[in-house]
Design a protein that fits this description.
Number of helices: 1
Number of strands: 70
Strand order of the largest sheet: 4-5-6-7-35-34-33-32
CATH class of the domain at 14-34 and 661-798: Mainly Beta
Mean pLDDT: 88
Oligomer: single chain
Distance between the termini: 38 Å
Largest sheet: 8 strands, antiparallel
Strand content: 35-45%
Low-confidence stretches: 4-37
Length: 800
């Protein structure tokens, strides 16, 4: 889907922000311009690949999970939507533990430890004393924590995970589970029937005879009191104690099988749930008698994590794998409201959860579509995503999606199916062209009535919102795989060959062109522009590869290619690309000079001169994993892209664009972000700021940087600034300064304008209107790597 870019002026709250640790003399030095070779940065906001290893909940709305390649996911609305981020792409996380809604720990591969003080809004790394893998963690409300892992290591922290000291376990067996009931009483379990207990906070650990067979590994334990607990593991074996581990009774789980391991179990009072390999789930109302529920899926998945908040609020998650296991995985989270039937909450779109298309109709709302009829939606600019599946046919997929408004979307794919929604995705209706059952490769809706769908080899058009789709003979046998229109009438399609098709009749006729000048390419993406606004196409770009096409993809040996015409195809030239450019799959140009292309292995290129030069840009997608399928932008400073592996990446340009979202519930102004709803952020440091005060060398992000958030209620604007500062001076020097143009009237100095200085000592002043300083409520608190400032601004002071 290609978007037509039309300049739009948004009326919004305007603000600028200035961070300083400088003296007044330093601040008065000449301004220096920070370099801006690439106008912004990309970040991963979703990924479908990898396994989920652990999951925990702190209430019926808030749950956290973690897994492969540094993934962390969170929901604050009972799974209706999820936030995803990558904390450490080079290491797997195996366990997560929270003490309340704010404080949490992640542990994993080679001693990795991450900790949060704000409910997962931000994480900072810590480190265990060594590089052993850490498999489990238990965090208490007083800041004490224990983590266990490889070769029997046990580490203890008394400061929320900031520092760790080793404890003596007297075993070299791998430990897989740990739980503390209070500051003194704890249990750990692991390989070869190992069970350890302590009654002095881990100062000493002693071995417990659990009656588990000596050959069997224990992967899970859970205690509901200091007397009652369970252990479970290899071959479906389970034991129960009612006397604090002094004696253990065999529990018949109904899962006893040499090839079926129990990987996790959890209890909410007497109700228990367990999960294991081959997708098995079992529940119990007394911890003694267990009922195997219908397998959550076939034997190509593992249930690595379960959590029971109540018998009617049960979670399970894990990884989908190939059979035989080839090391390729996709994660999933399911939920049950009756302890029996589990349905998708996030992920769970097959082993290869490829996303094929994206449409980004507003700064807040975007839709993605892909394999297994998957549809994802964000309403907060990509911070959180909700997921649905439009058909129950696993073999079905969507190749294109187009949303002219935030509520109206059309998506098209296999079997000649087009689905449409007019209510933001709450309901979808099937649309079909008579007699056509082949795949659609792209769809573009120009408005609520007019659109085009790319078929093989025919094109389809609608003038009534898809109630009818009319086919057009196109000539030639090649599929149309990408559509770009300058208006309702004129556009091109790429054909995955050295050709393209064009129309100037709104799709009533399409003509195929095979230019001799660019016959070396196989083109998968197209972009056309009317740069001089005369109603005719002038500039056009075709992107693809030089190399053979196998199974609808470029095959080695190959190189990326971009062909450009400035005169509607009269003359053509190949554009110069960086050495070793991989095949390219999509292009988006904002004007005749500025644009992006995406391609294999997550590659991205940017141009500011129409393609005379293209510069590689980091995409945050791991090389070798995937290819970018589609790019879409709201404007030049805000965009997203989809990719194989279930990737969604987001672009944020420079400048001071900060999206403010409605805040459900109250915000306490106390310097803590724990009660803030997730949403967009603005990140500032010396590298991405448009202006830096002072001389070079500029400070590093660990020296001074900030993340800024904004929320609003009916009568108040809230702002949160999380400042990273290696040296915090609380005696009045360190400050954050916010300039606000409340009416966005571009007139500085009015009653709606304010220049707020919030200092690290908690004081605030309005430099423009000193008499109103007391009308602003602020909260300041130190954090582990700097300080946090909150401010509440009454709407009347903004002229609202």
């Amino acid at each position: 889907m290609k978007k037509i870019f039309i300049p739009i002026i948004f009326l919004a709250l305007a603000l600028s922000l200035f961070l300083t640790t400088a003296s007044p003399d330093q601040a008065s030095q000449a301004e220096s311009q920070a370099p801006q070779a690439i106008p912004g940065a990309w970040s991963t906001v979703w990924r479908g690949s990898g396994r989920l290893h652990d999951l925990t909940c702190v209430d019926d709305m808030t749950c956290f999970a973690t897994g492969d390649d540094g993934m962390f996911v969170k929901t604050v609305n009972g799974g209706d939507s999820w936030h995803f981020e990558v904390l450490d792409p080079d290491h797997d996380f195996y366990a997560i533990s929270f003490a309340g809604a704010a404080r949490g720990l992640l542990v994993g591969e080679t001693g990795r430890v991450y900790r949060t003080e704000d409910g997962g809004a931000t994480w900072r790394p810590g480190a265990a004393p060594d590089t052993f893998d850490l498999n489990a963690v238990s965090l208490q409300n007083d800041g004490r924590a224990w983590t266990v892992g490889q070769d029997g290591v046990i580490y203890h922290s008394s400061d929320w995970g900031a520092t760790w000291t080793p404890q003596t376990s007297n075993t070299t067996r791998h430990l897989h589970a740990v739980q503390f009931l209070d500051a003194n009483t704890g249990f750990a379990a692991g390989d070869k029937a190992t069970v350890l207990a302590t009654n002095d906070g881990g100062a000493t650990w002693h071995t417990v005879n659990s009656t588990f067979p000596s050959w069997a590994n224990i992967y899970a334990l859970h205690f509901t009191s200091d007397q009652i607990g369970w252990i479970a593991g290899q071959a479906g074996l389970m034991r129960r104690t009612t006397d604090g581990g002094a004696t253990w009774q065999t529990v018949t789980s109904g899962l006893e099988n040499d090839s079926l391991d129990i990987l996790d179990l959890h209890f909410a009072g007497a109700f228990g749930v367990l999960g294991g390999i081959t997708g098995v789930i079992a529940t119990s109302v007394d911890g003694v008698n267990w009922t195997k529920q219908a397998d959550i899926a076939s034997n190509t998945r593992d249930v690595n994590a379960v959590y029971a908040f109540s018998p009617t609020d049960v979670w399970a998650g894990g990884g989908i794998k190939s059979a035989p296991d080839t090391g390729v995985y996709a994660w999933w989270i399911n939920h049950s409201d009756d302890g029996v039937n589990f349905t998708r909450s996030a992920g769970d779109f097959g082993l290869n959860p490829h996303l094929e298309a994206i449409s980004f109709p507003s700064k807040d709302v975007a839709y993605v579509a892909g394999k297994q009829s998957s549809i994802g939606k964000t309403t907060d600019g990509g911070e959180t995503w909700s997921w649905s599946q439009l058909t129950d046919k696993p073999a079905h997929y969507f190749n294109g999606i187009s949303c002219p408004t935030a509520d109206q979307c059309w998506t098209a794919g296999r079997y000649g199916w087009i689905y449409a929604t007019a209510d933001g995705g709450q309901t979808w209706s099937l649309q079909q062209a008579s007699g056509y059952g082949a795949p659609y490769y792209d769809i573009v809706m120009l408005d609520e009535s007019n659109g085009h769908a790319a078929g093989n080899p025919v094109m389809f058009r609608t003038t009534d919102g898809g109630k009818t789709w009319l086919d057009t003979t196109t000539g030639g046998g090649n599929a149309n795989v990408d559509i770009s229109m300058i208006d309702q009438y004129a556009g091109w399609t790429a054909t995955r060959q050295a050709s393209y098709r064009w129309t100037t009749s709104g799709g009533q006729t399409w003509r195929r062109v095979i230019p001799d000048d660019i016959a070396l390419g196989i083109y998968q993406g197209v972009q056309v522009l009317d740069a001089d606004d005369n109603g005719d196409i002038d500039h056009a770009w075709l992107v693809g590869c030089k190399g053979p096409m196998v199974h609808e993809e470029c095959s080695e040996p190959f190189t990326g290619m971009i062909a450009h015409t400035p005169d509607n195809g009269t003359t053509w030239s190949y554009q110069t690309l960086p050495e070793d450019t991989l095949p390219l799959t999509d292009i988006i140009m904002f004007d005749a000079n500025h644009g992006w292309v995406g391609g294999y292995e997550g590659s991205l290129l940017y141009t500011a001169d129409g393609g005379t030069s293209w510069e590689p840009v980091e995409s945050t997608i791991s090389p070798g994993q995937t290819l970018i399928t589609e790019l879409d932008f709201v404007d030049a400073g805000r965009g997203m892209a989809t990719a194989y592996g279930g990737y969604i990446i987001r672009f944020a340009g420079p400048g001071r664009t900060l999206s403010s979202y409605e805040q459900p519930g109250a915000i306490e102004i106390d310097g803590s972000p724990a009660d803030w709803y997730q949403g967009g952020q603005l990140y500032l440091d010396a590298d991405n700021a448009s202006t830096v005060l002072g001389d070079k060398p500029w400070p590093l992000p660990i020296d001074i940087s900030a993340r800024i958030y904004s929320r609003w209620t009916a009568d108040t604007l809230f702002m949160l600034v999380e400042i990273t500062d290696n040296v915090v001076v609380t005696e009045g020097e360190d400050a954050v300064q916010i300039a606000i143009d409340g009416l966005n009237d571009k007139q500085w100095g009015g009653a709606d304008d304010h220049l707020l200085t919030i200092r690290a000592d908690g004081t605030v002043s309005d430099e423009l209107h000193p008499d109103q300083s007391d009308d602003f409520t602020t909260g300041v608190a130190l954090s582990g790597n700097g300080w946090v400032a909150e401010v509440a601004i009454p709407a009347p002071l903004l002229g609202r």
